[in-house]
Amino acid sequence: MDTVVSNSALLSIRPFPPVRSVTCSSYSPTTSLKEHFSRFFYTQKKQVGRQHRSSSFTAPKFSIAASAAIQEINETQFQDSVLNSDRPVLVEFVANWCGPCRLISPAMEWIAQEYKDRLTVVKIDHDANPRLIEEYKVYGLPALILFKNGQEVPESRREGAITKVKLKEYVDALLESVSVA
User: Fold this and answer.
1) Does the active-site annotation cover 24?
2) Catalytic residue status for 98
3) Tens digit of pLDDT for each residue in 64-112?
């Protein structure tokens, strides 16, 4: 059976809610929108500037300081800690300003704890150790390089953020290849 709908029934249904109008006390038809917005933003900038100068707030800075499991070293300690080590050493090159470095920091802490009997993990600050950065050609951060017997393990270099699961797979594969060699 067909249903017949009249035109009057369609006209009484409102498909959209009514529109509200917003008024602005500082806007008048004689003021252009450009003038209005430039006054608004100029005023806002001045207020923010005043607040910033009178405030003693300092933004928190990310620290690359190592934990108990991860040792932070510099160029002078590199020879003893990495090249002369009798264990494999995973070197993590990081920087304070590097977002991906902060992102993988908890995973690196976990790796250092999990593999503490088989692997040493150290951090090197990118900005404070330019000679090491140049010598090992670190182009991206964070950078991970595994060293064994004073040499970089071939195919061990990894740059960029990595998940905890992928990091575990990476370390497992490296330790297996090092123990076989």
Assistant:
1) no
2) yes
3) 555 678 999 999 999 999 999 999 999 999 999 999 999 999 999 999 9
Structure tokens at 123: 């951090």
Q: Catalytic one among 66, 73, 98, 124?
A: 98
Residue 73: closest CA among 52, 89, 56: 89
Tell me how far apart the alpha carbons of residues 4 and 181 are, in angstroms, rounded to a whole number. Answer: 84
Hey, what are 55's tokens? 């405030």
Catalytic residue (one of 94, 95, 101, 144): 101
Name every residue whose Cβ is closer than 8 Å to that of residue 96 and which is 6 or more positions away in sequence.
61, 62, 63, 64, 125, 127
C-beta separation of 107 from 142 below 8 A:
no
Between CA 133 and CA 61 the distance in angstroms is 22
Cβ atoms 136, 124 nearer than 8 A: no
